[in-house]
Amino acid sequence: MPLSEFQLIARYFESLAPASPEHGVVLGIGDDAAILQLPPGEDLLVSIDTLVSGVHFPPTLSPRAIGHRALAVNLSDLAAMGARPLWFTLALTLPDANEAWLAAFAEGLGTLARSSGIALVGGDTTRGPLSITIQVHGAVARGTALRRDGARPGDDLWVTGRPGLSALGLRRLQAGVPDEDPACAVFVWPEPRLAFGRALVGLATAAIDVSDGLLADAGHIAERSGCAIEIEATRLPLAEGLAALGREDALALCLAGGDDYELCFTAPPSAAPSVDAAAARLGLPCRRIGRVTEGHGARCAGYSPPTTGFQHFGGSTDA
Fold first, then answer.
1. Are β-strands 25-27 and 35-36 bridged in parallel, bridged antiparallel, or unpaired?
2. Domains and CATH numbers, the chain
C-alpha cells in the first residue's frame, strides 16, 4: 500500500523537526502552522528557492545529492547576509512515493540540516513532476545583516573559493563523467559559506552569493549600491581544471558559469587583514579580485562574456 502524506512525513522527515527551546520551536510539524520564537534583539531573514528536475539539477542526480543541494542553495542566501540558520520548511512534489528515493533524499537533506543547525518546522507534499521548494529562516543581531546596497567607491571586491568550477563540473556530468570527479563534486555537493558569512559581519560593506555567475552577481551589488565594479581578469582564482582550458572558455565559466554558491563581497581596504585572517581561520580560499568605482554596472576589462548569468523566462532568478 502506498504511503499516505502523513506516513511519508512521519517516516522520513519528523527526525529533522526538533521542538526544543534551543531551536526556538514551540510547535513544529503536525499542526496547521509552526509556532516559533525569534531570539530577542535579532532580525529575522527569510529566503525561498525552488529546484526543478531538469532545470536546476540533472534528472540523473542521486536523491541524496538532490536533498543536500536543495537545502544548500537556500542556506547560501543566509550565508550571504551573515545569518545564523534557524528553521526551514519543505514543499516536496513527487511523481510517486518511492521509499528508496525518499530515504536517500531525506539522508542528504538531514545530514546538511544537522551540520548547519537548522530545524525543519513544516511543509507540504504533493504528486507531480519532481520539484523541491525550501524556505529558510535565519537570524542576525538587529541591524547588522549584510546587504547588497552598501558598496562604496574605493572598496575592494572579493570572492571565496574557485568560481567556475561548478559550471565545469556540470559540463563534465553532462558528458558522462562520474560525479566523483572533483569538479563534478563541486556542482553536486555545494557548500554554503555560513561560517564565513557570519565572520564578514562588520567587515563587508555588501555581499551576495554567486548563483547567477560572478559577473552578473557583482552587477547586482553594483546596481543596488549605485556604483560600478571592475573585476581584474588576472586576479581571478582559476582552479586547475579551468586553467587547463583556453583563456576565453576559462573566463566564461568563471565569470558567467553560475551555481558556485561562493560569496562575492565588498570591503574597505582597511578590512583586508581581518578578511584574510577569517579566511585562514576557516581554511577557505578568498581573494581580492577587483574594486568598486564611480559609475554603474560590473565589467571585466578585455572580456565580454556571452551571457550575464543564468535566467528563467528572460528575467533574473535572483530575488
1. antiparallel
2. 5-141 (3.30.1330.10), 156-305 (3.90.650.10)
